[in-house]
Amino acid sequence: MKTILVSYRVSDRDRSLTFYTTLGYLEVGRVDVETAELVMLRLPDESSVSLELVCRPSGGPISGESGFDHLAIEVDDLVRTRARLVAGGLKPTPIGHPGGPDGPTTCFVTDPDGYRIELVQWPDGSKGGMTEADFD
């Protein structure tokens, strides 16, 4: 088994699509279903959809208080990525080192509905991602 995608319900499809394409996602396609409009997205290095935006126009605004905490995205160069986002009008947090000086560097950016996205750059020499070995 493997995780296929994350699906976010969004208040305004176009506003959210602008945010996520500025973040770096590419639109793969759209699906209109009876009660919702779906937009399928992937990151440039991904071969398949990894994020689905679900807009239910009759559902009203989203509050971001669903219990969901954040989505984490690995980046190659956090300083450059953060600068690109700032230039695109987004407001990422300052870069931090939550695991100490030898751990990953991170920052967060919040989407129009209040969902937080963590951008993570792993230290040089790290394989990236977390595995069981990180918790032994």
TrEMBL record:
<feature type="domain" description="VOC">
    <location>
        <begin position="1"/>
        <end position="122"/>
    </location>
</feature>
<dbReference type="InterPro" id="IPR051785">
    <property type="entry name" value="MMCE/EMCE_epimerase"/>
</dbReference>
<dbReference type="GO" id="GO:0046872">
    <property type="term" value="F:metal ion binding"/>
</dbReference>
<dbReference type="GO" id="GO:0046491">
    <property type="term" value="P:L-methylmalonyl-CoA metabolic process"/>
</dbReference>
<dbReference type="InterPro" id="IPR037523">
    <property type="entry name" value="VOC_core"/>
</dbReference>
<keyword id="KW-0456">Lyase</keyword>
<dbReference type="InterPro" id="IPR029068">
    <property type="entry name" value="Glyas_Bleomycin-R_OHBP_Dase"/>
</dbReference>
<protein>
    <submittedName>
        <fullName>Lactoylglutathione lyase</fullName>
    </submittedName>
</protein>
<dbReference type="GO" id="GO:0016829">
    <property type="term" value="F:lyase activity"/>
</dbReference>
<dbReference type="InterPro" id="IPR004360">
    <property type="entry name" value="Glyas_Fos-R_dOase_dom"/>
</dbReference>
<dbReference type="Pfam" id="PF00903">
    <property type="entry name" value="Glyoxalase"/>
</dbReference>
<keyword id="KW-0479">Metal-binding</keyword>
<dbReference type="GO" id="GO:0004493">
    <property type="term" value="F:methylmalonyl-CoA epimerase activity"/>
</dbReference>
